[in-house]
Amino acid sequence: APDENLDPSPNPNPNPNPNPNPNPNPTTERLYLLDTYLFEADAAALSVEALEPNPKDDATHAVILDRTVFHAQGGGQPADLGTITADGAVFEVTGVRSAGDAVHHFGSFRGGDGDAPAAFAAGAAVHLSVDEVKRVAHARCHSAGHALDVAVARIFGEDWVAGKGYHFLDGPYVEYIGKLAPEMKETIVDTLNEKIAEVLSEDIPTEVLYLSPEEAKAACGTPDADFSHITAPTIRVVTVAGGGTCPCGGTHVRSTAEVGGVTLEP
């Protein structure tokens, strides 16, 4: 489903960087866009800021890095979880959000003695470790949503258009806009289950391209798309199961065979 789709969860802290940042325009290289299966990396901490208390979230700090393997929540896909460590300090990442060119890692320092766990500061060399099981589960779920777009297209062609997509594990779904003939109402779920099983069994590789705005419009079949909010010179375009090409900032499996079984429910 397109990256502009439903993102239901609010920012875990609406003021992620309340204190002055030594670097007013930090930039984080997003390694997760290059390799879904990169679970660890080394980085440098650009800023470590204490957060104002938030009754809706337990995070105490926001960390910005020069590079990250943590997927930032967005496009209907949840954030990666894991740890950032340095010199005995362990920062448990419980939320990740993009803000401009930077990626904010929300969480808390844990461990150590007493009430003051060890912490690291801006400039520290850190090691990142993503929860592998959750990362792969999120990638499978997101790719399944894109594969469903292809299954729907094989049945309805362009008569059904993908709307909102939700790729969280607690109840993923994709909404479609289109008409359904009365005689199909009783069989549509079974028909879709058969078709998506067919798509997944074909072991179709996932393709990721970085295109200019005009190239992206052509590849996605959306000549009127507005990409003015994207500041990067190129747009990341993803094709899963050989179709449903669209701009996407999510993590995906290598091919449809890695999605596993998918069962649709009414």
Automatic annotation (TrEMBL):
Pfam families, alphabetized: tRNA-synt_2c (PF01411), tRNA_SAD (PF07973)
Domain Alanyl-transfer RNA synthetases family profile: residue ranges: 26-266
Alphabetized InterPro entries for the sequence: Ala-tRNA-synth_IIc_core, Ala-tRNA-synth_IIc_N, Alanyl-tRNA_Editing_Enzymes, Thr/Ala-tRNA-synth_IIc_edit, Transl_B-barrel_sf, tRNA_SAD
Bias (Pro residues): 9-25
Signal sequence region: none
Cofactor(s), names only, from the UniProt record: Zn(2+)
Cell location: Cytoplasm; Plastid, Chloroplast
GO biological process: alanyl-tRNA aminoacylation
Chain segments carrying region Disordered: 1-28
Main location: cytoplasm
CC per GO annotation: chloroplast
GO molecular function: alanine-tRNA ligase activity; ATP binding; nucleic acid binding
Similarity comment: Belongs to the class-II aminoacyl-tRNA synthetase family. Alax-L subfamily.
Family annotation (PANTHER family): ALANYL-TRNA EDITING PROTEIN, THREONYL AND ALANYL TRNA SYNTHETASE SECOND ADDITIONAL DOMAIN-CONTAINING PROTEIN
Protein name: Alanyl-transfer RNA synthetases family profile domain-containing protein
Organism: Phaeomonas parva
